[in-house]
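A common beginner's mistake is to predict each chain separately and then try to dock the pieces by hand. The better habit, illustrated here, is to supply every component at once so that their relative placement is modeled jointly.
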Amino acid sequence: MTTPMRTVRIIALTAVSVLIALALVARLGVWDAMFPSPPPSYGAVMVKPFTLVDQRGQKVTEHDMLGRPAVVFFGFTYCPEVCPTTLADITSWIGELGPEANRLGFYFVTVDPGRDTPEELNKYLSSFDPRIRGLTGTAADIDAVAKAFGIYYKRIEIEGGGYTMDHTSSILLLDASGRFAGTITYQEAKDVAVAKLKRLAEQGAPAA
Amino acid sequence: MKFGFGLVLTLVALIGASGVLFARDYSAPGVKVANPWTRATPAGATTAVAYLKITNTGSTPLRLVGGSTPVAQRVEIHSMSMEGGVMRMRPVPGLDIAPGATVELKAGGLHLMLIGLNRQLTQQEQVPLTLIFAGGRQLAIELHVEGMGGGMGSHGEP
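With all components supplied together, the output reads:
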């Protein structure tokens, strides 16, 4: 039989255990390692006012991104593995989605605006689906957008010349109001990724 | 269920076949390299990655220190890690391979980084690359260029 006293004790014990677990996670830095920037929460508004430029030299602001769900990936053209692979994956998902893909906006935002000029982005993105819009801008503008999207990136100097960029590799999914609606992680299975994009496209459909 | 099993068998056969068709093994006294490959690069890309499996078939330690290729300014050994969704790459000065041991450079992990590409790499071509080991030993190999997509897990054993 569970007496009220016992129930109270169980609740108290559970609360203490949870607190100890949380303290351990914080102390071990597990959370920091998992999410170098605070993890976004569902429904959080990610799209804040911004002004960037696309690969054709056109100005792009938050108003262009809002109005239909968006698929946003941060990377850089000097990136040898994750970025070309992800852009090739996005291109194949767009092919799989067919006309439904037009209900989504696809964006590749550089974390390396110093090297990724609109011209560089234009050349690079010519190898992928033309619906992927490449965005670049000043270092300050890129930084503000990355922060708003909860994207971690850091320039790392390489001995012997040059540098590389550490960066969050997940693809962010946003609804038509610019709110966080999920992620697609690097190398996620194609059917799972396409299902997520289909769901996102449906969410963004105008009410019947 | 039956269909699923058939599909798996077909995939295994395909992966096996692709290995037979494309993968080449290269050996020199004391060293063997299996299935060297890279990916097609986007237009204007300045970097590429290469993967392979190196076995020390000799009786003395082997240390890979780098490489060279006519398609890029330089070749470095890099490690890649993915923690909390953040991708990080770092140069590695050398890779020690004990006698009898095999080190695999593969997607999502250790790889050769081709820096300063002077041309685009296209699917199905072969790209020459020379591996350089400590002591000045070299081994000439050819990277098979695969498609741009795909990566971890999409390449089976040759």
